[in-house]
Design a protein that fits this description.
single chain
Amino acid sequence: MFKRIAIAAGSATVALGALAGGVAAAGPASASPLPVETFTGVSHNVISNVVQLDAQGPAWDHGFIKLVNGPKATLVLSRGNIDVRHTTGQPSVKYDPATCTLTEVDAGRYAVTGGTGAYRHAGGYGTFLVTTKARFATVGGLCPPKATLEAPSATPLGGETVFRAGGPLWGVTSYRDNGRGNGYGRGHGPVRLIHPVHLPRDPFHHPHS
C-alpha cells in the first residue's frame, strides 16, 4: 500500500526555509541564537514507515523515526529518545500518470516534549518536511488511475521517503565530530551542556495535552 505517513501537515505560516538551520531564538535582539539541531534521513522502502536518521548540531547522533499518523512521535537515537508533539493536517498528494508515481508532501511544526538518556532534559521546537515518492506498475501498458493507487491494496514497485527537520534544541550534552567524519563524537566525549539564554515561546499552547 501507499502508506499515508503524515507525521504532520503544517500551517501556511511555517517558514520551511528554516529547515536548513536558520532558526533563531525568539527574544531580545541582543540574545545569542539558540543552537540548532537538524535531523535528516532517507528510506528507499516506502512500504515501511521507519526512516534512518542522522542528527547534527548540539547533539551529534543517529537513529530512526517511525512515521505514524497522530500528534506525537519519537526520535529513537543511540544516546536516548526525543519525544515530540507536532501539528497534523491534510498532506499534499500529486500523481504523475506518465510515470505512475504518487508524491506525498507533509510539512509542519514540532515541539520537543521530553526524552530519555542524554535527552531527558531536552527542549526545543522547529519545522519539518517529509516527502514520499512511490512508483507503481502499469496495467495493460497504462498507468492506473490515482484513486486505484491510493487504495489499501495497492503496492508500489519502489520509491523513497525523505525526512528533514530542524530547529533550536537545548538541555542536551553536546558531542562533536572526532575528526573521522562519522559525526557521532566517538572517543571525543561530551563538550558541554547546552542551555538556552532566553527561552522562546513554545509553538504550541498546550504541548503536553
